[in-house]
Amino acid sequence: MKHPILNNRTRLIIWWMAWLLITAGQILLYCFAYGSFTKTAIPDGIVSLAIYAGIGLSLWYPFKFFNASGNKNMQVTGNFILSGVMSVTLWILVNKLLVSAILPEGNDYQDYWNSSFPYRIGTGVFIFGIIILVYYLFESLQTLSDKKAREAKLESLVKETELKLLRSQINPHFLFNSLNSVSSLTITDPEKARDMVIKLSDFMRYALSKKDEQPVSLRSELENLRLYLEIEKVRFGDRLSTEENIDAECLDVKMPVMILQPLYENAIKHGVYESTERVNIRTSVKCRNGFLEIVISNNYDQTVTTPSKGTGTGLMNVSKRLDIFYSKRASMKTTKENGIYTVSLFIPTEL
């Protein structure tokens, strides 16, 4: 740890201002002991200020050495007592010699010195104790700051690991579904299977290029989602249609990579799979009140008596990733009404 005062301009200014107040109080105390004010009190106070302030700054280094790991409490206490005696003695002797040297002959400094000497010892010990307590305070604050920094780093690593785990559950899920579709098309329509493989490779290239959880723009996500929907259109043809209503001002908003893809996959699975009619997936994006509102809806066949029940992995992972990424500032809502299934996301525009 660097010197907590010398490496901080504000603290250094406060340090010298505090010494000015200490010196003023010291002069008043010594003059009280002497019985009256004397002109020698001013140079004595200035020299005392400069010497003890310098000693106080240099005490940081033995303080750090004494508190090094491995030193016992009794040893540390003994070292501080010894350094305190040396500091106060040095301060008193150097102060006496310098002031005596700069004052003209015929002054009353010796009488002033003799009267204030016991108070000098007392104030010297008191100030030394204050300096050590201040350094203990600085060290405690630095330790607390380091601890918080380590905890924040650990929390960030845990979040990143959990986000990657959630994302790893999504990518294979989509890949398996797509490969099954390609397998079917190789028999029924080889040309479509070839087209789907090309689009699938482009889609997976995007997914694999975003290996971490660095946010991407809505524009980038939408471009990749259109590619995903094109892959599905190869398989379902006219049974699947899409519609978009995107505010241009929202396109540069950042979000977690591939956060929307499971929602479209869910719409395909529970909409197109289970319906013989045309299914339209609508996407609406608006920016309002500091939030990005993304609404994805699709119609479904209400006549299906036994709809397939999924595991809920996609929606659950999206919800968890939003909670982790935005610290619970984002939200997701689903509704199912009048043959329309809707998922609404509310994401802060500022990360």
Give the total of beta strands. 7
- In terms of per-residue confidence, which ranges show pLDDT below 50 for 5 or more consecutive residues? none
Helix content: 55-70%
Instruction: List SSEs in N-to-C order.
Output: HHHHHHEHEEHEEHEE
Distance between the termini: 32 Å
The tally of structural domains comes to 2
The strand line-up of the biggest sheet is 2-4-5-7-6
Q: Which outline best applies?
A: rod-shaped
Second CATH tier, the architecture of the largest domain: 2-Layer Sandwich
Radius of gyration: 37 Å
Main beta sheet: 5 strands, mixed
Tell me the fraction of residues in β-strands, as a range. Answer: 5-15%
Class from secondary-structure proportions:
alpha+beta
**What is the CATH topology of the largest domain?**
Heat Shock Protein 90
CATH domain class of the largest domain: Alpha Beta
Nearest-integer average pLDDT: 83
Number of helices: 9
CATH superfamily membership of the largest domain: Histidine kinase-like ATPase, C-terminal domain
Task: Explain briefly what this protein structure is.
The chain has helices spanning 9-34, 41-58, 60-66, 73-102, 109-188, 190-209, 218-236, 261-272, 313-326; strands at residues 216-217, 240-246, 254-255, 279-288, 291-299, 331-337, 340-348.
